[in-house]
UniProtKB/TrEMBL annotation:
Pfam families: OmpA. Signal peptide: none annotated. NCBIfam families: PRK09039.1-2. The chain crosses the membrane at residues 21-47. InterPro entries: Bact_OuterMem_StrucFunc, OmpA-like, OmpA-like_sf. Residues 47-198 form a coiled coil. Residues 248-374 form the OmpA-like domain. SUPFAM superfamilies: OmpA-like (SSF103088). It comes from Acidocella aminolytica 101 = DSM 11237. This is Outer membrane protein/flagellar motor protein OmpA/MotB. GO terms for cellular component: membrane. The keyword Transmembrane helix applies.
Length: 374
C-alpha cells in the first residue's frame, strides 16, 4: 500500500517536465519557421530588384545597339554619297585639266607668233633702211645728172629706181604680212581671254557644285536617317521575340534555316510568315517617306562556305541569288513597290562567323535586309 502511493506521486511529479520540454520545442519550431518566412520575404524582394535592374540593363543595351546600328548606317550612306561626289568632282577636274592644257597650247602658239612678228619687224626695218638708202642714192644721182648730165648717170638712176620699186613692193608685202599677223594675234588673244574667263567660271562652278552636293548630301542623309530609325523601330517591334533574327550594324539578319530548307530556295510556310512581317513594316514606313527621298530595301542572300553537293544549284552564288530573288518575289506579292526593292546574291562572301562548326555555317547562311539609297 505504501509502495503504490509512492509510485503514483513519482509519475505526477514528472509530467510538468514533459510539458515544459514540449513547449520549448514548439517555441523553437515557431521561431525557426518565422526566420525562414522572413528570409524568404527578403530574398524575394532582393530577386525582384535584381530582375528590374536586369530589365533596365537589357533596355539600355537595346538602345545602344540601335544607336550603334544607326551610326553604322550613317557611315555607309555617307561613304556612298561621298564616292559619287568625288566622281563628279574628278570629272569636273578632268575637264578643267583639258582646258588648262588647251590654254597652254594657245599660249605657246601666241609666243611663237610673237617671235615671228619680231622677225618680220626686223626684216621690215632692214627693208625700210635699204629703201631709205636707195632713195638717198636716187636723189644724189638726180642731183648729179642735173649738174653734169650723161647716159651713164641716167642708167644708174634707172637701176636705182628699179631697186627702189622692188624695195617698195617688198615693204608693202611685209606690211601685209604684219597686218595679217597682228590680226591673228588679236584673234588668239581674244580666244585666250575667253578661255581664261571660261576657266575661272569653271572653277567657280566646280566650287559651287561641291558646295551644293555637300548640302544636298547632308539633307538626304538626314532625311534617310530619320526614316531608317523608323524602319528599325517598326521592324524590331514586328519581329520582337524572334531568336533567329538579329541586328548587325545597319542590317536585319535572318538565318536561312528559318526561311528555307537545306540547299533549297523555296520559302517555308514559317518563312513566309516572317517575310510578311517585313513587308508589313516596309509598307507602314513607305507611306511616311516623302516621294523626293530616294530609298530602296536591299535584299542580300548569303551562303556558307561548304561546297554544293547535288541539287539544281551549282555554286553558292547560284543558291544565294535564288534565295534573295525568292524573298524579293514574296515581298512584291505582299505589296512592297517594285521600284523600292533590289536583290543580290553574295555567295559565301562576307561571313559573320569565322569558324567551321555547324553553328557558324548556320549563321553565315542568311538573308539580310537593309534600308539604303539606290
Amino acid at each position: 500500500m505504501s509502495r503504490r502511493r509512492n509510485n503514483g506521486n513519482n509519475g505526477l511529479e514528472g509530467w510538468p517536465g514533459y510539458v515544459d520540454a514540449l513547449s520549448t520545442l514548439l517555441m523553437v519550431t515557431i521561431f525557426v519557421l518565422l526566420v525562414f518566412v522572413l528570409a524568404e520575404a527578403f530574398l524575394s524582394y532582393a530577386l525582384k530588384g535584381s530582375d528590374n535592374t536586369i530589365t533596365q540593363l537589357k533596355e539600355q543595351i537595346a538602345e545602344l545597339t540601335q544607336s550603334l546600328s544607326m551610326e553604322s548606317s550613317k557611315d555607309a550612306t555617307l561613304s556612298q554619297e561621298l564616292a559619287a561626289l568625288n566622281a563628279q568632282l574628278a570629272s569636273a577636274q578632268a575637264a578643267n585639266a583639258t582646258l588648262t592644257q588647251q590654254l597652254s597650247t594657245d599660249t605657246a602658239t601666241i609666243s611663237s607668233l610673237q617671235d615671228s612678228q619680231k622677225s618680220l619687224q626686223a626684216q621690215l626695218s632692214d627693208t625700210q633702211a635699204q629703201a631709205a638708202a636707195a632713195t638717198g642714192r636716187i636723189a644724189t644721182l638726180q642731183a648729179q645728172m642735173q649738174a653734169v648730165g650723161g647716159s651713164d648717170l641716167q642708167s644708174k638712176l634707172s637701176d636705182a629706181q628699179k631697186l627702189n620699186k622692188q624695195d617698195a613692193a617688198q615693204i608693202a608685202l611685209l606690211n601685209q604680212q604684219m597686218a595679217a599677223l597682228r590680226a591673228q594675234l588679236a584673234a588668239l588673244q581674244v580666244a585666250l581671254d575667253a578661255a581664261q574667263s571660261a576657266d575661272k567660271q569653271d572653277k567657280v562652278r566646280i566650287a559651287d557644285l561641291g558646295k551644293q552636293l555637300n548640302e544636298a548630301l547632308a539633307r538626304k542623309v538626314e532625311e534617310l536617317q530619320k526614316y531608317q530609325s523608323v524602319f528599325f523601330k517598326t521592324l524590331s517591334e514586328s519581329l520582337k521575340g524572334e531568336k533567329n533574327i538579329r541586328v548587325v550594324g545597319d542590317r536585319f539578319v535572318f538565318e536561312s534555316d528559318v526561311l528555307f530548307p537545306v540547299d533549297e530556295a523555296t520559302i517555308t510556310p514559317a518563312g513566309k510568315t516572317e517575310i510578311a512581317q517585313v513587308a508589313k513594316a516596309i509598307n507602314k514606313i513607305a507611306a511616311k517617306i516623302p516621294s523626293n527621298v530616294n530609298w530602296v530595301l536591299s535584299v542580300d542572300g548569303y551562303a556558307d562556305a561548304q561546297p554544293i553537293k547535288g541539287g539544281p544549284y551549282k555554286t553558292n552564288f547560284d543558291l544565294s541569288t535564288a534565295r534573295a530573288l525568292a524573298v524579293l518575289d514574296l515581298l512584291l506579292a505582299d505589296g512592297v513597290p517594285k521600284n523600292r526593292l533590289m536583290a543580290s546574291g553574295m555567295g559565301s562572301n562576307n561571313p559573320i562567323a569565322s569558324g567551321n562548326t555547324a553553328a557558324d555555317y548556320a549563321q553565315n547562311r542568311r538573308i539580310e535586309f537593309r534600308l539604303t539609297t539606290p
